[in-house]
């Protein structure tokens, strides 16, 4: 379901669902949503990209849901301007 939502978003807006900060940090290459801000279970291994910006996939989900919050401020105006 998540992969389908990403493809639908990309088709509608001609870009992947990511924040401006993630786009800048990745410099238009693949961006991995890691584990920043997530409490890991004991023994869990963090996932970090080594880029200037780290986040987790909650940013992706907020954007896909169209929620005007956190990493997705003013989402309507940003998406409608494309």
Structure, described:
The protein has one domain (2-80). The chain has helices spanning 2-13, 20-26, 58-65, 75-80. It has 82 residues and is mainly alpha-helical. The protein contains 4 helices and no strands. The longest helix is centred in the N-terminal third of the chain and has 12 residues, at 2-13. The relative contact order is 0.18.
Structure, briefly:
The chain is an all-alpha fold and 82 residues long. The chain is built from 4 helices and no strands. 40% of the residues lie in helices and 0% in strands.
Task: Please outline the helices and strands.
Layout: H1 2-13, H2 20-26, H3 58-65, H4 75-80
Uncertain spans: none
> How many helices in DSSP terms?
4
Structural class: mainly alpha
Shape: globular
**Overall pLDDT score:** 79
Main beta sheet strand tally, sense and closure: none
**Gyration radius, rounded:** 13 Å
Record keyword descriptors for this entry:
82 residues, mainly alpha, single chain, globular
